[in-house]
Amino acid sequence: MTPPADSKKYWLDDPHNVTKLYKGLWIACGLLIAIDLFLHRHEDFEFATVFGFHGAYGFFACVALVLAAKQLRKLLMRDEDYYDRDSHER
Amino acid sequence: MSGDFPVALILILGAALVPFLPGLLRKAWMLALPLIAFAYLLAIPHGLHGQVELLGQTLTLMRVDKLSFLFGTIFLIAALLSVIYALHVDDSTQHVAGLVYAGSALGAVFAGDLMTLFLYWELTAVSSVLLVWARRGAHSAATGMRYVIVQLLSGMFLLAGALLHWRATGSLEFGHIGLSDSAGLLILIGFGIKSAFPLLHNWLMDAYPEATPTGTVFLSAFTTKLGIYALARGFAGTEELVWIGTLMAAFPIFYAVIENDLRRVLAYSMNNQLGFMVVGIGIGTELAINGAVAHAFADIIFKGLLFMSMGAVLLRTGTIKGSELGGLYKSMPWTTGFCIVGAASISAFPLFSGFVTKSMIMSAAAMEGLTFNWLVLLFASAGVFHHAGIKIPYFAFFGHDSGIRCAEAPKNMLTAMGIAAALCIGIGVFPDALYRLLPYATDYQPYTASHVVAQTQLLFFSALAFAVLMRTGIYPPELKSVNLDSDWLYRKAAYGFVATFRDALASTRAGLTGLLEVRRLAIAVFLLRHRRPEGMLMRSWPTGSMALWVMTMLLANLAFYYLG
């Protein structure tokens, strides 16, 4: 990688600050789930009123999505010039 | 004011002047065209205008009602934003193509009959492909050709369906069509190609990322939303669409996660958003139709904004591959900010436009008791945040610092992005302004405590999943690659089949030629025997012998004459 032309240090350049953000996200998620203790959510479906339903669904949906997409790569991924290799291709 | 003059022609005829105008005047003229068209739209009453009698049929050039007015409005907003965004471009081909394209999409929306719709439908195809070809190069030439073939094919399905519909009903009026006969099926396929139904979708991911940085912004607004408009008009409440839309919302997000070209990631997420709209149209209740068209309205702005931010990155860095980008927030802070607003809108964060439109579709699905579809759509909601909301800004502007230092986007691009971002937030904060434009009156309330909390939980935990997968190194890295999609069928499989056939033909011809070669020699020897310079037929004869023969024949003639 080419070295950056400027040497200005940005807040996000420090890995400690990235870790702070990461921990902050955990705390934010914890607080959001805690709301479920006090708020009785009105939902169209009974199962969606379960404690932490939306949080768990969002988390596991995304993990499943990424893991599945990673497996799909084995089946679908080709070199960047896959379609250009045959010069007659139109 | 009479509404007989088709609003589309303001843009289409206006575009014809563009190449002849000098610098500043040209820019002012291009900016004025969408504004003039909008002023005209506001001035004319709702109703049927511009009716022409042709071959015993009444063609309606201008049908102004709530649905067409809403789409006309958003198409003109999109045209204005796209013109501002492309203002620095010097290539008048792109300006003319963009304006004609926007105008023809507008004409299609106001078409009151299937014939007028078909004409504008084809014009959108022909004008939009110029935006792909304008990138100039063998690659975009091939991509554009594939794109325009698919688009024109969609028009052929529409035409065939329209003619059958005419024969069956005796009318060309474009109202509710439904799936009751083969005419309806053909028209649905035509609309489905434009709306990127599964397996009819791949032109979108193929062509949009190959257009010019400004061309893709135009493209993202019109073609697919015209398909959505046409579906809402002709196929509201068609149950099959619920399932088609559910599939559409889900499968492209898997591709989006592993795609490296960030504009192609956006094309996949566009397909996913179209899925939500198609589900809404399929459900067909007032709330669902409202949700579908409101979401189309919001999507044109936030998807345009996302394509604008990626176009600016492509313009400034010369690449749009996730594997080569990163850390651009240092060079392009404004573009980064606007991109995040677009990302928050498509992810449906509270206070952003996607939140107040997509939730109508979700509520409509829940009210109809479509549990499975609702769960898939919720999965797709989390997924779209994951790839369009996080992946796009993360890999372009944050993530690993690529070391690229470039200038901020040009002022006109920043202006267009700024207006689009303001609209995204405006719609999110004041949804009633948009709700009033919807086809059915509504008192829908998106901002209930339950809904806001549930959606925020969903999104934050999706973000948490991304962060955890990143920190643990499980998240698949951006790799230089292409991923096979349904275009493989015609770019490789069908091409391979044809190539095999071609090779077989070539070898057959070679065999036949070899065989002929042997026969040819024999024939040549035979011909040469008499026709070589000294051969019997080619020899030169003395004049005297000719005179002798003539005399002999004359004598023979005389002899016969006497004898006879």
Oligomer type: heterodimer
- Summarize the amount of helix of chain A as a percent range: 40-55%
Cα separation of the termini of chain A: 35 Å
Structural class of chain B: mainly alpha
Largest interface: A-B, 59 and 63 residues
> Unreliable runs of chain B, pLDDT <50, ≥5 residues?
none
Kindly provide the radius of gyration of chain A, computed on alpha-carbon positions and rounded to a whole number of angstroms: 22 Å
Q: What is the share of helical residues of chain B?
A: over 70%
How would you characterize the overall build of this protein?
The complex is a heterodimer of chains A (90) and B (564). Chain A is built from two helices and one strand; from the N terminus they run ααβ. Chain A has 90 residues and is mainly α. Chain A is flat. Chain B has 564 residues and is mainly alpha-helical. Chain B has three domains: 1-112; 236-480, no CATH class; 491-563, no CATH class. Chain B is built from 20 helices and three strands. Chain B has helices at 7-17, 23-43, 66-85, 92-110, 114-133, 138-169, 182-194, 202-207, 213-234, 240-258, 262-283, 286-317, 333-346, 353-367, 371-397, 411-429, 431-435, 449-471, 487-531, 543-563, and strands at 47-54, 57-64, 482-483. In chain B, strands 1-2 form a two-stranded antiparallel sheet. In chain B, helix 1 (7-17) runs antiparallel to helix 2, helix 9 (213-234) runs parallel beside helix 11 and helix 9 (213-234) runs antiparallel to helix 12. Chain B is elongated, with a radius of gyration of 32 Å. The mean pLDDT of chain B is 91. The chains are: A mainly alpha (90), B mainly alpha (564). At the A-B interface, helix 1, helix 2 and strand 1 of A face helix 6, helix 10, helix 14, helix 15 and helix 18 of B.
